[in-house]
Amino acid sequence: MNKSIYILEFKLFFRNSATWMGIILLILMGFAGLYFGKTFIEKQEQVITKAASLQKQQTRQNIAHFGNDIGLFFYHNKFSLANTPGAWAAFANGQRDVNPYLISVTMLGLEGQLYDTDLSNPLSLLLGKMDLSFVFIFLFPLVIIAFSYNLLSEQKESGIWPLLKAQTDKTFTIIWRKILVRLVVIFVLALLLMLVAGIYLQLPFDGTFATVMTLILLYLAFWFAVAFVAISLHKSSSFNASALIAVWVLLCIVVPASLNLLLTKKYPVPEALQNVINQREGYHEKWDMDKSVTMAPFFKHYPQLKKYPFPEEKTFSWYWYYGMQQMGDDSALGSRVLIEKKLASRQNFTETVALFFPSIQLQLGVNELAGTDLDSHLNFQQAVRKYHETIRLHFYPAIFTNGELKNTDIENYKLEKYVPKDVPVIWINLLSITTLTVILAGVGYFSLRKRI
Amino acid sequence: MSNIITTIARQTFKTAFSNKATLALLILLGVSLCLATYVGWQNYKSQQNQRLHYKALVRAKWLAKPDKHPHRMAHYGYLAFREKHELSFFDFGIESFAGVSIFLEAHKQNTVNFSEASFANGMLRFGEISVAMVLQLLVPLLIFFLGYNSISAERELGTLKILLCQNVSWKQLLWGKTLGIISVCLAIFLPLILLTILLWASLSNWQINPDSSLRLLMLILCYSVYFFIVSAITVLVSAYQQSSKAALTTLLACWIFFMVIMPRITQAIGDKIHPSPSKIEFADAIAADISRQGDSHNPNDVHYASIKDSLLKAYKVDDVKKLPFNYGGYIMAEGEKISSKIYSNHQRHLNATFEKQNRLTLLSGFLNPYLSLKNVSMALTASDFKTFVDFQNQAETYRYGLAQKMNKLQIDKISNNSPGETAKPLAISRSNWAQQPDFNYRFSHLGTILKSELLALASLLCWLTLVIIMIQCTARWVKTIPNQN
């Protein structure tokens, strides 16, 4: 009995042309999202491969041009570190279009090189990437709204509702059944798209997959809860459609967009511009100063290098030059820490407000899991700092003793790949969406009970 | 005739305001507009002041540099900051995604760094609220809510046939409804324009720049046309659809498709069809061209060897040290000339690729009035791609000028005999530094902008013509009485 009613409900639902339009839209957009998301990441991978061979070639050329002046060689030669995209990056491109994924630096001052961006079209950045996470965050809720806004009101408007009410006292069950049918269809669609994504993007079916899946299903359940509350108010179809679209516009556009404005106002980052000036002055002013102004702090920074004799009498030496470059970085240390603090408070602000807005929460959650968020980029910057420092310390002795380049192991250096180690935990994101969903579903339940 | 139109318009206007939900929506929109104006203005002010502060600092530090070798100054270089246009508080456009500062030094072209987006996490991708965003995205939604049942409700209630029997023509009815709806929008838009003008005037210390005033006028005109197009479409959909509900769902579906989905898709396709090179590929292509023409860093380069030979021959000396000018400076000037020309060619080519990527979105304006208005609005508020490119070009011109100025000083004022390993380095007086002027970005004039935005303006005009024709001719196609089924 119960089973056959569900079959009838499904049949009824699929007889509606709007149902098919919604399903087809999601599948088409889902595939488009997968395709564009994947090609974007594939291009980055190709560039990284190309960069590896280019670095080798350029090192060889630099050896040919500057091989007999070791200081000059390292003035020109670049070392690259690539932030290789993880499997999930194609699913959620995140900030990978804004932030550079390949940083090539010479041994000179790092602060002057670390923030160089890639070449990008700002209009493309503004309009945003088309990936599968976009489909889940923006389009799925719209289809959920389209499927459920007239679930009850349509019955009333077509005059079926009084008939139904007269025949059974289980009107709540009827509505519940209809919602369940829609929920199942949407969930199956989401699972299907995720399955296709898993195969197409070669995502490992592991804990991360399960977390992303849970996060998405929770988000979709949240939108059903929103729709449920609207249904429970017993208003007309037009009212429901308007109200639900208004909620969508609020949650997916107006609220995050206003918060962004607030964020920019509350936490501006003038330190970044100050940082450039500090680095530049910290290095260049040393040319006009006594050499000890450079070398005393330099040896304080690197006491282990003191053992290499400094050619005090020479007007110019690479020893002094690299020391001055180091002073640029050291002068920028304060502003650099300030930038980091500012960015941390920005992150804090976003995480706090996201607790109340599942759309932001999902975006942040999947970007974090995909390793395409700001934090991942900052970690990548830290890795570049570390790598740069290793290279400096490795080659300083050869430069400071005016060694021969061919006696170093420079030929062994190739493009390095940065791979983030820890998998982030996002239980807060899960918890906040769950809580909001449960609250809304409860509100809808009582409101519907009261009005039936 | 016109009397009937005004009566209908007035009636529509009154009904809109008598509806509590509409009133609430209107107030909400008005408040968010005021908020967007106020915060947008504050952000503009603080960011612009920041940039001006650092611009002044950079200038002061440049002038305060002691006596030096000019080539040291060329490497010390200059920092240029992308200034915001005074109207950019109205429309942020690409502001947050374009870099702010660029380091200009000899031999090397750097990227414009530190965009707001590089300090942002995923939330920024939802957009930023600005006056333009409210007017472009949310006002149309309001218009849809106001007008979806403008005709269909009359039909459903049976008043439509009565109206049409009473000497009211379809044309008058459609014009009246459209004008009624647009006047509701203008009721909130007009005070806002006044507020914007006041704010903007106070921003520029009551010294109004004529070019900016014209820009603002043009903006107001374009937005009014946009609202008219959207209102007319709403009324037309309401006339064509059988029921109010169908009209509403059609309009909402259109809103989602044209304003949420389409811009991303057109741009994604544009990016796909016209792929742009990554930075390393770009730099590699430039390096390859330079080594073909002459690489001053390559000691065995043919081009520079021949320059050396011809110089020695012309001055009848056997060593470059005996030349009457600084040979190093001469070679660097030549190197700068070659590399900068090659770089500019590649940069131009890259920007052409970006333009091609954007072209699809631009052309989509003929299918989507939102996109045409968006393009025009960004251009008029100088927050568009072209302004950014223009900044890059002006900065590069300045960089080249600075490098060559320093090379010239070296050629003329630095001795050709390099001092010994332990001698004092060669230097020229610091009084020379002031000869290099400060970097000041110049915004294009309205005429230039209108010329480059011809396509977007044309698409907006096409839409205007189309909806007017539709209103004029609709009577032939629509039904007065609902289908009986």
Task: Describe the fold and architecture.
Chain A: InterPro entries: DUF3526. Chain A: This is ABC-2 type transport system permease protein. Chain A: Keywords: Membrane, Transmembrane, Transmembrane helix. The complex is a heterodimer of chains A (about 450) and B (about 475). Chain A is built from 17 helices and 3 strands. Chain A has about 450 residues and is mostly helical. Chain A has one domain (about 1-265, about 355-390, about 410-450). Chain A has a 3-stranded mixed β-sheet with strand order 2-1-3, sandwiched between helices. The two termini of chain A are about 25 Å apart. The relative contact order of chain A is 0.14. With about 475 residues, chain B is mainly alpha-helical. Chain B has a domain at about 1-260 and about 370-405 and about 445-475. In chain B, about 65% of the residues lie in helices and about 0% in strands. Chain B contains 16 helices and 3 strands. Chain B has a 3-stranded antiparallel β-sheet. In chain B, strand 2 and strand 3 form a beta hairpin. In chain B, helix 4 runs parallel beside helix 8 and helix 8 (about 210-240) packs antiparallel against helix 13. Chain B is elongated, with a radius of gyration of 30 Å. The two termini of chain B are about 35 Å apart. In chain B, about 45% of the residues are buried. The mean pLDDT of chain B is about 90.
